């Protein structure tokens, strides 16, 4: 029976290639350096891609592509406050020649939230890190989602579904990044899903009137809630 299912799937994919899922990934996302032992590390994406490649049935059902542009700052500012985006861009310039990642949360606290120095998060216990490749990776991750939206909405779309295999993640990043009542940025820089949602609502307003965001995670997507409110 399983072989019949496989054969049937193969026939459908051959008759209608748009049934293949477009998987978007770019090597820029691997340049977000969070240290070797960090749980949100480049190896997480590598493991996903390797699993796809090893699974013959799955690999035949997808199309892997890195043919998409990073998001522009204007795109990102549809979901995030300009002062937050500027803070991240300036931080990227400061670490351009750095060889080690730095603590991200206290920089957002001081640069955007204007938190007094005595109340800044301890850098030694900060779980969200920022490296010379982080800004580029975050923009590329947002670009993947906006490209996914453009692909699906297109009347001549070659794919009906898109999976964005990107990092850093984004659902803890609110309008101004770190939420006022949060102690951490939660590994997140830009909320790529919300950037994509706002792109859909503004650039494809004739076709898209509402967007549903379904967030599967062990933690509340407080950043996403902050933006969509």
UniProtKB/TrEMBL annotation:
For this UniProt record, the keywords arranged alphabetically read as follows:
Chromatin regulator, Hydrolase, Nucleus, Repressor, Transcription, Transcription regulation
Show the GO MF annotations. histone deacetylase activity, hydrolytic mechanism
Record-level GO cellular component terms: cytoplasm; histone deacetylase complex
Residue limits of the Histone deacetylase domain?
Answer: 38-228
Compartments (UniProt record): Nucleus
Q: Name one GO biological process term.
A: epigenetic regulation of gene expression
The record's section on InterPro entries has: HDACs (IPR000286), His_deacetylse_dom (IPR023801), His_deacetylse_dom_sf (IPR037138), Ureohydrolase_dom_sf (IPR023696)
Q: Identify the main location.
A: nucleus
Q: Which domain of life is it from?
A: Eukaryota
Q: Could you say which EC number(s) this protein's record lists?
A: 3.5.1.98
Q: Name one matching Pfam family.
A: Hist_deacetyl
Family stated for the protein in its record: Belongs to the histone deacetylase family. HD type 2 subfamily.
Name under which the protein is recorded? histone deacetylase
State the organism of origin: Octactis speculum
